[in-house]
Structure formats: structure tokens, C-alpha cells
Amino acid sequence: MRAADNLALRRIAPVCTLVNDANALVMALGGQELEESATSAVGLLALVAGQDVEPAEGSDGTDGRWRIARRVAADRVISVNDPQARHTRKSAENRRDGYRARVAAEPETGIITDEQLTRAAGEDNSDAAVAAQFVASEAAGTGMGCRWYGDAAYGTGDLGEAISVAGDAAVIKPWPLQPAVEGGFSTDDFTVYETAGTVTCPAGLTRLITASHQTRLPHPTAPARLAAAGRATTLPARKGLAYCRTDGLVGALPAPRPPLFQSTPTRERRSS
């Protein structure tokens, strides 16, 4: 055995021991009748033992060789004493562990009309997902129209659709449009007709949108015609373009304006 191989094994040895011991215990208890608390503890052990490791280099995961994973698990459990707590951050530098709280309030009076405490991570716990629950709760409780204010974190198509279905109005800061390449096209340069199921590119080419929300440029000259529209493109011939069902709703969301001291016929809510 080479010295480098021996050093690599010594580095991963503590991880291998911990993970293999945990796996052995989980397998030994897997077929036994356990109380609910013990079953939960075994499940938590299995999760914690596997979420931060991956097979070592050259391993297929069956030889007991493991290393610390070169990534962070998407829904990582950070505490065995509080399994619902998660990682979160307000910025790249401001990182926290725990939960996230959101409130909906009347902007003119400051009265909180709804609140929710969720895990700090996960798509179901995003700002927009929680706000959609606020919208549904408000619609079920009063049935009166509202105007919802929020920053760009709430500017998703799914939330825009939920607000529209509830008969409310959205005043939400839209996400900044970023072209795929410098000086290239953004989603605003394409015209989507959802009822007709078509999308038109900046060069005037119109194509059907498939059931999987895809469309294709019609012929090999399409990239040249796009470039002739005066903007950069790196699309090769017959390259597919993806379209999200709610892209149009995102683009239709107006930018927010200060709601204070405005007289409107609808009730207002601010989600934060």
C-alpha cells in the first residue's frame, strides 16, 4: 500500500467508524417492535449518520468506506435535540440556525393579521409559499379583496397565481431580469400567449409550447435571426427553450409603492 493511500484511509477512519456503527445499530433494530420514541430515535440516527457523508473515492458505498460529503444536504438536520431546526441566512455573511417567522399585517395600522413559524429551509417553507397560505386563509375568512405588498422574495409565479385566484391584487417587487449571457436576451424579450400555447422570440419566430413547457427554435438559421435582432445569443441551432407556466405571472407583478396614507377600495396586507 502506498503511503498516500495509507494517509487517506487514516483521514477517513473516524468517519467510517461512526457511520458503520450507526448503520449496524439501525440494521439490528430495524425488524424489532419498538416504542414510538425509540422508533423516532432510530430514524433520526439513520438520517444524521447519512446526511453528511458520501462514499469515499473509489468506493461504491458497500465496502464501509465513507468521507465527509463535499456539499450540504438540502434539508439538513442540525440538532438531535431540536430536529425541526434548520440552517438559514439573511446574506452570505449573516448565517443563522433555527426557524423563520413571517407575519401579515395591515400597513396603515400595523395590526398583525396572520403569522407562521416554519423551518428555516425547504421549498414548502419559503417566503412565497407561506405567503400563499396567508392569502388562502384571508380569502377563506373574510372573502373580501386585499392588496398584498411584499419584496422580491415574494415575487414568484405560484404566489402571483394564488393571489389572482383569490381575487386579490399583488403589489410585489419583481425579481431583477438577468440575461443568460452579457448583453443577451431576458424573459421580457419573449412574448408568451398562454391561451394559444405559443411563444414568440425577439426575431419574430413563433413556436408552440409543449405539454412539458418546452419550445424549440424552428430551423438552423434561428440563432442568426436572433442575433440580427441586435442582441447577443449563444443558442445553437435547434436548441430547446424552457418556459415555466407561471413566468407570465411573475412578469405581470407591478413594483411596490409605499402603501401608507393611500386611500383604496380594497383591504391591504403586507407580508414580511
Write up this protein:
Helix content is 29%, strand content 21%. It is α+β, with helices and mostly antiparallel strands and 272 residues long. The strands form 4 sheets. Strands 3, 4, 5, 6, 7 and 13 form a 6-stranded mixed beta sheet that branches. Strands 8-9-10 form a 3-stranded antiparallel beta sheet, with no helix packed on it. Strands 1-2 form a two-stranded antiparallel sheet.
Annotation keywords:
21% strand; three-stranded antiparallel beta sheet; six-stranded mixed beta sheet; single chain; 13 strands; alpha+beta; 272 residues; extended
- Which spans have pLDDT < 50 for at least 5 consecutive residues? 245-268
Number of distinct beta strands: 13
Radius of gyration using CA atoms only? 26 Å
Indicate the mean pLDDT.
Answer: 75
The main β sheet shows up as:
6 strands, mixed
Number of helices: 6
> What is the string of helix and strand elements?
HHEEEEEHEHEEEEEHEHE
Proportion in helices: 25-40%
Structural topology:
Layout: H1 3-29, H2 36-51, E1 53-55, E2 66-68, E3 86-89, E4 95-105, E5 112-119, H3 127-141, E6 146-150, H4 157-165, E7 169-172, E8 191-193, E9 198-200, E10 206-208, E11 214-216, H5 222-228, E12 240-242, H6 247-252, E13 267-271
Parallel strand pairs: 6-7, 6-13
Antiparallel strand pairs: 1-2, 3-4, 4-5, 4-13, 8-9, 9-10, 11-12
Helix pairs in contact: 1-2, 3-4
